TrEMBL record:
Family, as annotated: Belongs to the CAPAB/TerDEXZ family.
One matching Pfam family: TerD
Name of this protein: Tellurite resistance protein TerA
Ranges of residues in domain TerD: 2-166
Sequence segments annotated as region (Disordered): 171-216
Biased composition, class Pro residues, residue ranges: 177-206
Length: 430
């Protein structure tokens, strides 16, 4: 599509993929959506992004990132048939974290039929320069039907500027320190009044949207090899629930015979789905140890030991919300350590052709995300992260560590040996 052009969208629901090519020095990109009436949001609830992943209506959802080799896509799901009638437009935007869109190669947006997977529209943005936020496209109603327009207009004020422009109340300041600040001393001589600016900025004519709650926080944390750890307490995540999400997909690049074998395996497994299992080894403060996993229906419990619960067993990952494990941070002091890991249950034998994203989202504080490194060993198990007590605080440490079990040794026992739990293991099944 050309910039400014539009196409009809007849699909009942669509999956929007905002994608880009990864390269050295390129900033990370985040997708977001704004539901508009008369050009503005009705409230802060009409902003869907990584810190507010689901609209109250359920019609618009931030579904997370999927790396695929040299490309990454961040996905927004939109059930067009369920979008409230008063919503006239769904703006599809992107923001650059740590740079400008002039440094982001291959920025594009694809609109896919959520049912068939067929591509409805694609727009490649090629003229970005100093912008740090971008309206890439929009879904809008016209005479009772939906259309998609390629927009390609940017902001130099980042996600906060874009959100504010559509009526969102933004509070992206860091959380205040716990210690009270003493009142400042009264100066001996009052300072002179500040001079009026030569050209005052034009005020926004329409009033801000009433959110009915706290302003939207835009902060997030990305763990890397160079900065692999973060204290949840220092981010304000000291209570409530912590949701650990794992999302994955098979790399689609290449058409070698190896790729064909992978497709055959996946087609035979679980009705066409690649099945990964999110698991956790835990040790409580009283010394008790155990495992959370779908095998043996060891789903755990949120309100009694081990204060963790595996929400279910997702056998697709790439087309749904992935696997989720919830941790009760109200009992964080009773968790001595937790090792989060993922195993391949069926559909593949190694992580060498898979990509995955891990996101930890607390009720309070910024979400923590990281990608798994590319696997270069025949590994069926990957340790994602650890949660450990350090000086009375629960600290997240990115591991992204691929393990190769010895012959006849299960992936679970391999993780146990690597992290010194010393538990007894018996065969299990779903």
């Amino acid at each position: 599509m050309l910039k400014g052009s539009n196409v009809p969208v007849s699909a009942r629901a669509v999956r929007v993929e905002i994608g880009w090519n990864t390269s050295a020095g390129a900033p990370d990109v985040d997708a977001s959506a704004l539901l508009l009436k008369d050009g503005r949001v009705r409230s802060d609830d009409d902003f869907v992004f990584y810190n507010q992943a689901r609209h109250a209506s359920g019609a618009v959802r931030h579904e997370g990132k999927q790396p695929a080799g040299a490309t990454v896509v961040d996905r927004i799901g939109v059930d067009l048939a369920d979008v409230e009638q008063e919503i006239e437009k769904v703006v599809l935007a992107a923001s650059a974290d740590g740079g400008t869109f002039g440094q982001v190669p291959g920025l594009h947006i694809r609109v896919l039929d959520a049912d068939s997977g067929a591509e409805v529209a694609r727009f490649d943005s090629e003229d970005a320069t100093s912008e740090t936020a971008f309206v890439v496209g929009e879904l809008y109603r016209r005479q009772g039907a939906w259309k998609f327009r390629a927009v390609g207009q940017g902001y130099a004020t980042g996600l906060a500027g874009l959100a504010t422009d559509f009526g969102i109340s933004v509070d992206d300041e860091p959380a205040p320190a716990a210690a009270p600040t003493p009142p400042p001393a009264r100066p001996a001589t009052p300072p002179p009044p500040a001079p009026a600016p030569v050209t005052p900025p034009a005020p926004v004519q329409t009033p801000p949207a009433a959110s009915g709650g706290s302003p939207i926080r835009l902060s997030k944390i990305t763990l890397t090899k160079d900065a692999p750890a973060i204290s949840l307490a220092k981010q304000g995540a000291t209570s409530g629930q912590l949701r650990v999400n794992l999302n994955w997909q098979q790399r689609s690049a290449g058409a070698a015979p190896k790729q064909s074998k992978w497709k055959d395996r996946i087609a035979k497994a679980m009705g066409g789905g690649l099945d990964l299992d999110l698991c956790a080894l835990f040790e409580l403060s009283d010394g008790r140890k155990g495992v959370i996993q779908a095998l043996g229906n060891a789903f755990g419990s949120l309100h009694q030991p081990p204060y963790m619960h595996l929400d279910g067993d997702d056998r697709t990952g790439a087309v749904s919300s992935g696997e989720n494990l919830t941790v009760n941070l109200d009992h964080a002091k009773e968790l001595r350590r937790v090792v989060l890991f993922v195993t391949i249950y069926s559909g593949a034998t190694s992580f060498q052709d898979l990509d995955a994203t891990v996101t930890l989202t607390p009720e309070r504080g910024a979400p923590v995300e990281f990608f798994l490194d590319e696997c270069n060993v025949p590994s069926p198990v990957c340790v994602l992260a650890t949660l450990t007590q350090q000086n009375g605080e629960l600290v997240v440490n990115r591991e992204a560590r691929y393990l190769v079990p010895d012959k006849g040794v299960s992936p679970q026992r391999t993780v146990d040996h690597a992290y010194g739990f010393g538990m007894q293991w018996t065969p299990g099944r779903k």
